Amino acid sequence: MINFNLDTLRGLSTPCYLYDLSLLRDTLAVIRKEIEGYPFMVHYAVKANANSVILEEIRKAGLGVDLVSGNEINAVLDAGFDAGKMAFAGVGKADWEIETALVNDIFCFNVESEEELMVINEIAAAKGKVASVALRVNPDIDAHTHKYITTGTEDNKFGINLSRLDEVVDQAVAMTNIHFMGLHFHIGSQITTMKPFEMLCDKINELVAHFESKGINFEIIDAGGGLGVDYENPEQNSIARFHDFFELFKTKLKLRPGLTVHFELGRSIVAQCGALISRVLFVKKTPHKRFVILDAGMTDLLRPALYDAHHKIVNVSAQSQELEKYDVVGPICESSDVFGKDLLLPETSRGDLVAIHSAGAYGESMSSRYNMRSLPQCHFIE
């Protein structure tokens, strides 16, 4: 858990992000231990948090990166990551982004459609390159998470449907400027039970056996990410269930010689090491509500406004232990600028410091300048 030092917090300009690098390092150490001795490779999903200090810690831990834009490619190259550990995903890759990846000889493109496959082949031919690709499969597995972060059903925009997979694999194998490596999957985010991953393993085993029967052997299987974190009790569960996650793939996947399994973990690596720190501007009382109005808003942490995401909120400087019920809101001119409703907090006053937990993933990376707001500053503790 993050160790909040009140003297340190009082000296910070708010709103700001506070990152605990010790917790991040402990998390990375657990991942390295869990994959040791297995043909597993973890790529960090940069979209979760692209802060340069965070990237440096992840690079030093030896992880690869999962990328979804050309600017992310440039950012991780600047951060010193090995291009041979870069996987480029995303349902809409622009030509210049494909060219950037090809010029830098990245490890693999995760291809989402037949047309994308043809375009990559054409651009690679024009540049005298051979593009290594994995085809993203839509396995029609419902991870039972929020509809905005479900990605593996037939109703989603991602991946190639199973009914088309054989034909698209045959196309990839036949293309002159494509090196077909295997299959890629990602069934959703914030998955908190192992059952969807077990279903994914069954589907992977089925598809690997099917293509082996056709004489096609894969070099890689990319199982994606999606492992959730505990937003309810971040102090008690500050490191995600990596043991259960990797143990499932160790036991359920039928690993072939020469086949490596790749993972794209983002939220589970960085969510718990970051908190959004804010000051109380006002406590507003109405006949039916008490509002704690913070100097942080949806421009600093969008997730609650975007899909009602829950984050634990703590008054870290409260002088009273008497609990009151509050709606915790921000200053933005939008009714959706709400962090939590009917929350029990110690009696709260103007100037109190509030920590919004589990904000290390999709917090800073989704912040904006809406209402001409300043972007939040970042601070780091060891």
Q: Rg from C-alpha positions?
A: 22 Å
**Element string (H = helix, E = strand):** HEHEHEHEHEHEEHEHEHEHEEHEEEEE
CATH fold category name of the largest domain: TIM Barrel
Helix tally equals 11
Name of the CATH superfamily of the largest domain: Alanine racemase
Strand % is 15-25%
* Main beta-sheet annotation: 8 strands, mixed
Question: Any descriptors?
Answer:
eight-stranded parallel barrel, 382 residues, 11 helices, 2 domains, single chain, Lyase, Ornithine Decarboxylase, Chain A, domain 1, alpha/beta
Structure, explained:
This protein has about 375 residues and is α/β, with parallel strands linked by helices. The chain has two domains: about 20-270, TIM Barrel, CATH 3.20.20; about 270-380, Lyase, Ornithine Decarboxylase, Chain A, domain 1 (Beta Barrel). About 30% of the residues lie in helices and about 25% in strands. It is built from eleven helices and 17 strands. It has helices at about 5-10, 20-35, 50-60, 70-80, 95-105, 115-125, 160-175, 195-215, 240-250, 265-270, 305, and strands at about 15-20, 40-45, 65, 85-90, 110, 130-140, 160, 180-185, 220, 260-265, 275-285, 290-295, 315, 325-330, 340-345, 355, 375-380. Strands 1, 11, 12, 13, 14, 15, 16 and 17 form an eight-stranded mixed sheet that branches. It has an eight-stranded parallel beta barrel with strand order 2-3-4-5-6-8-9-10. α2 (about 20-35) packs parallel to α9 and α8 runs parallel beside α9. The radius of gyration is 22 Å and the shape is elongated. The relative contact order is 0.17. Mean pLDDT is about 95; it is low at about 150-155.
